[in-house]
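call fold(seq) -> tokens
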Amino acid sequence: MDWRSHSGSYEAALCGTWLGSGSNGYFTQEVPATSQIIYRLSGWFYQDNGWAPQQCGLKLGFFTNSLPDNVALSTAVYGFPALPISTWTHLSLTATAPSNTAWARASVFVENAGDWGTLQFDDLELHFGRILSTFGS
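ret:
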């Protein structure tokens, strides 16, 4: 969409039921992943006036090749707080891939969107890196 991107010319959006596409939605990217690596999903988010889903946020799911695609080894979820209206806000979720991880699914999701508004997002990034040291363990 080219409504009001954070940078560049376009952003993605999950819309309320006014669009006629149901009340649940997601934007997903699947990538190879490695056990015991920290992953951080982040991006910029913009909420229209009237946006009132039951829940929306970020998810990081970790999967192995020996289970069906819909059975995660673990899933981290960050449900968004009430965002400022009509202001871009940077949000992120961090999680460590468990043992036997082969791939990860990074998602922006909405459940039970209301009648109005949209959640727009831009500049999504998935970073990863090793734990260099642990203190106090």
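The two ends are 47 Å apart (CA to CA).
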